[in-house]
From TrEMBL:
The lineage of its organism: Eukaryota, Fungi, Fungi incertae sedis, Zoopagomycota, Kickxellomycotina. Keywords: Membrane, Transmembrane, Transmembrane helix. It comes from Coemansia umbellata. Pfam families: EMC3_TMCO1 (PF01956). This is ER membrane protein complex subunit 3. The keyword Transmembrane helix applies.
Length: 245
């Protein structure tokens, strides 16, 4: 599995090539969206008047498409965005990386299930509870076996999730050999309703952020903070003096 991970990393580099240099307008789009998220999460730390001004400005900018890389893309449909050659290239790179993750894992899992189905591979040197039986003895229909015995298919999944540190040590932190990272990315994109490699529709995200900002109920956490500090530490000081007496 280590050799397959190294081979997959090198093959991904050869197929995808060097990543394109980031465009200033692309960075601006992402930072503008991050600015709205930061304002929504930390709005209670600024006064009400400042929050209202910031919300008004960002909502208007999101609606007008001020931060869009191409303002003409505001009226384009998702199919038009996917027809863009640059977006097509991004989608192809995403599909290549996805195939590099799916194909090796499918082949190894199929090879293990065909040749070593029902095999016991190792015995753990420490006892475990019965809750680990289903996780450590996949493919074995024996309810009376000790939990310390591990099947070949379970050992494959343990290695799949446990080799991340080894790949980071051999290939560096940003490597393409970690299969769990692809699973996490695919689940995150699925939760957001986005397919792997699909270009982001920033206009849709800006409008969604505008709706989120417009419904926030602002309450300043630092209202009368001076009085609260004086009351809090004044009481503690009086208690401290009374205990000394």
């Amino acid at each position: 599995m280590v050799l397959v991970g190294v081979f997959r990393h090198q093959l991904t580099i050869l197929m995808t090539g060097q990543p394109p240099k980031p465009d200033v307008k692309d960075i601006r789009q992402g930072k503008a969206l991050l600015r709205g998220q930061t304002l929504a999460q930390n709005n209670s730390y600024i006064p009400t008047a400042a929050f209202i001004e910031r919300k008004k400005y960002l909502c208007q900018a999101y609606e007008d498409g001020t931060y869009l890389k191409d303002k003409a893309s505001k009226d384009k449909s998702p199919t038009d965005l996917m027809a863009d050659p640059k977006n097509m290239e991004v989608m192809m790179d995403g599909m290549k990386k996805q195939m590099m993750g799916i194909v090796p894992q499918t082949l190894i899992m199929g090879w293990i299930q065909f040749f070593f189905s029902g095999f016991i591979l190792i015995k753990l040197p420490f006892p475990l509870g019965l809750r680990f039986k289903q996780m450590l003895q996949s493919g074995i229909m024996t309810p009376n076996m000790d939990v310390k015995w591990v099947s070949s298919l379970s050992w494959y999944f343990i290695n799949l999730f446990g080799l991340r540190g080894v790949f980071a040590l051999i290939l560096g932190g940003e490597n393409s050999a970690d299969g769990t990272r692809d699973m996490t990315a695919m689940s995150t994109m699925g939760a957001m309703g986005q397919q792997p490699g699909q270009p982001q529709d920033f206009n849709k995200q800006f409008l969604s952020m505008k709706d989120n900002l417009s419904i926030i109920y602002h309450e300043w956490d630092l209202e009368n903070v001076e009085q609260r500090v004086l009351v809090k530490y004044g009481k503690q000081q009086r208690i401290f003096k009374s205990t000394r007496k």
